[in-house]
Write a structure and sequence with these properties.
The structure is a homodimer. Chain A has about 400 residues and is an alpha+beta fold. In chain A, about 30% of the residues lie in helices and about 25% in strands. In chain A, β8, α5 and β9 form a beta-alpha-beta unit. The model of chain A has no long low-confidence stretch (mean pLDDT about 90).
Chain lengths: ~400, ~400
């Protein structure tokens, strides 16, 4: 039983958070520095971008979590601290500032950055903001919200979620904050996402849960097929819920994995729905594939097709583009088995059966596709495997946002 | 010595062409049916889409050119004849109409279609248009132009090219017509392109030349990373130039390959420049790669990045997006070796050296990137291999065109 609760990363026992404007971003109304601290050392697992160009903070974080533990996360927005001079020194410097202000050793700090690539970053604004950041740390929902706001870039809404679940007979909590929403095609991790839990779990099992989860959650989200250089997903487990430590793949581990998946899936939907310029969340559910890999390739190919994304923006039931995207996805399939249905709050619209078009009312199609959440159901009838991918429509606004993002 | 000449597909000896409006498209001012006929049976080579969803005409054409020869090409626009009822019967019917009106056996006819996927196609308009189509066949530039116009869909300009070259001491000619400009990410062939030559060459060597050429030409073009279901590239060689038949990989074969590459490369540039909604041609030249495959992966990844494409539309020198696209391209590289320079008629703009940003004037950057043709030079300094890819910017117009293409 997984129940949604308030509080984001502060919902689990033992975590406080805050976010402030320190001056990395010029716009003073935008927070740009976030901090999450734990009362105790936490079992910590991370996954990072597979992009060969990696942000400097990722190199520093990898070192710091090598032992499986961490106690704090510091994040800035407005500058990716990537492809620049002295990036690692700056990232390490941010961790040392956390140590100076909280007493948490720098080597127990996770650091992340998001924003423009290739710009110099100075420690000065970070140093100047630390006092207010630490003074305002709190364990209420406010703290989580401030941190969620401080990691936003082109996001239009902040992204938080929390759930309650049971493991080892104890009530546990898991919460998260995340940011999207451009350069989103995570590969082993999303842009930036920080998950906290008070469930007691060993670092090894935490990493196992996380690595398995991202394959079906964050790696299945795509806004623009651009895999970022700074993707970082970090989970910290304080263990304060009082359950017996999860140290093997038992029933408690399964309960934790289900709760983790509830968090990551909710975040996938939030990130896709808030994709740069998006007006719609597109969810593609593929069933009947020969293998999970085929199902994933097929689902992701559909939500990545710029032609389909533009058609969804125009509420145009151009299902030939779904077939086309399936055909070049690399997934094995018998085209003559394929069925496609569009579905939304306004009803369902079967458009293709056995690889061929079926008659439909254009009026009904317009109604179904004018909703804000469109499900594209693809039935392959080749096997028993399935996958879901999340994306968004392609709009004028995406072009506008990215035509002059830097300036 | 390869010299540009007039005449498109009618430039080589032995070819006539025409295009008419027959009524597949509702707009009477748009031609929708094209025919190319040869005076003699031609050695013929084709490459087709790798999309698992294949247009019905491709299945019919494959049968017809199995013996290495053909004598005519019939093409309609306005309907892709794909994922519909009885598509193969219609495609075969189009070939039979060519036989009825020209005497050329149906099994010597290449057939292709382009337009919306999943719509019923009737033979009626094709049958009605055949008389005018055949009556107007001519071997002048007019014939080629009419055919080039009749295969356009969202293309804004018709695409023709022809060159003169020498093989076996004889003057030979090679010409082509093609169409783009959406669902363009050819994989072993482009959308639709028909090449004629009067050079005498065996079917086997013609196929060899074509298959090698597309890897460095048409497979390196991408407008939207959507590989079409109907891509077909067909080369017909009449042999009327009088040269000794090219039947092995000798100097004449090389001369032919160079001429073929001049045609396909010119077409790549035309297709990319006319990409749906495009205002700019983007050419990415990668040098210093460890392997040709690495160079191709890197170049294609850059011109495919929606973020970079939007930045080019906005004339924003956001080179971090070039680095990001290189990093996730799958190409092996040492990021600390990478240098990037933007170049156009307005000058050059080095933006990155050794994987890090270099200072530049924003004013100069704006000037360089406001041109209609932008070259992105990427130097990997890891080896001696290179590749070039062609694409275009991502604009409001692309979204507009594809938001309501079908209706």
């Amino acid at each position: 039983m997984i129940t949604k609760i308030e509080g984001g990363v502060c919902a689990p026992l033992g975590f406080r958070a805050n976010g402030v404007h320190c001056g990395i971003r010029k716009n003073k109304s935008k927070k740009d520095l976030a901090l999450i601290v734990a009362d105790v050392r936490c079992a910590t697992a991370c996954v990072y971008t597979t992009n060969l160009v990696k942000g400097a903070p990722i190199l520093v974080t990898k070192e710091h979590v090598k032992d499986g533990y961490a106690r704090a996360v510091i994040v800035n927005s407005g500058n990716a601290n990537t492809c620049n001079e002295g990036g690692e020194r700056i990232a390490e410097g941010m961790c040392k500032l956390v140590e100076a202000h909280t007493g948490i050793p720098a080597e127990d700090v996770v650091v992340a950055s998001t924003g423009v690539i290739g710009q110099k970053l100075s420690l000065e604004p970070v140093a100047g903001g630390m006092q207010a950041l630490c003074a305002g740390l709190n364990g209420d929902a406010d703290g989580s919200t401030a941190a969620a706001e401080a990691i936003m870039t082109t996001d239009t809404v902040s992204k938080e979620i929390a759930f309650r679940f049971r493991a080892g007979g104890k009530e546990c909590r898991i919460g998260a904050i995340a940011k999207g929403v451009g350069m989103i095609c995570p590969n082993m991790a999303t842009m930036l996402m920080f998950v906290t839990t008070d469930c007691k779990i060993s670092p090894a099992m935490l990493q196992k849960a996380l690595s398995a989860d991202v394959k079906k959650s964050l790696n299945m989200v795509s806004v623009d097929r651009d895999t970022s250089t700074n993707d970082t997903l970090c989970v910290m487990a304080s263990g304060l819920a009082g359950n017996a430590e999860i140290a093997e793949a038992n029933a408690d581990f399964k309960a934790f994995c289900r709760a983790l998946n509830a968090v990551t899936t909710a975040m996938c939907r939030m990130i896709a729905r808030d994709g740069e310029g998006a007006t719609k969340l597109i969810e593609c559910r593929v069933t009947g594939a020969r293998s999970v890999n085929d199902a994933r390739l097929a689902a992701k190919s559909v939500i990545n097709s710029p032609l389909l994304k533009a058609a969804m923006f125009g509420a145009d039931a151009n299902w030939g583009r779904v077939l086309c995207a399936l055909g070049y996805s690399g997934a094995k399939m018998d085209v003559s088995h394929v069925a496609v249905t569009f579905r939304s709050a306004a009803g369902e619209l079967p458009v293709c059966k056995e690889g061929r078009g079926v008659e439909f009312s254009e009026e009904h199609a317009k109604k179904v596709l004018s909703e804000e959440e469109i499900v594209i159901e693809v039935t392959l009838r080749d096997g028993r495997c399935k996958a879901t991918a999340w994306g968004c429509d392609l709009t004028y606004e995406y072009v506008k946002i990215n035509g002059d993002y830097r300036t």
